[in-house]
Design brief:
By secondary structure, the chain is mainly α. It is 70% helix and 6% strand.
Amino acid sequence: MFAKLLTMLLALGLMAGLLLVNRQRMYETVGERVRLHDEVERLKRRMQELKVRVAEATEPAEINDMISENKDDWKAIQVIHRPVTMADTWNKDVIGR
């Protein structure tokens, strides 16, 4: 009888110890997630600040030059004044009204 009681107490003690270890790991994981979330938010704010600094440092003439450089690659949109038929639907460059 004494051996059964001792075995049960040891088993319960082992289970309680494992539960405590598991809980500690869970708290460490949650703490790590919170720390990583804070780091991500800090990096997002830093990126926004850098975007603002770049925008402030860029002159409007530079922006216009960048736009005009890319203008050659833009496709013109063709507007047709007739209903679009099924034959026109394959042509993605044509927009009809």
